[in-house]
Amino acid sequence: MTTIRLITKINAPIQTVFDLARNIDVHQQSTALSDEKTIAGKTSGLIELGETVTFQGKHFGFYLQHQSQITEMEMPNYFVDEMRKGHFKYFRHEHTFVTQNGHTAMIDFLQYKVPFGVLGKLFNKLFLRKHLEDFLLKRNQMLKDLAEKK
Question: Helix, strand, coil % (nearest 5) of the chain?
Answer without folding.
Answer: 35, 45, 20
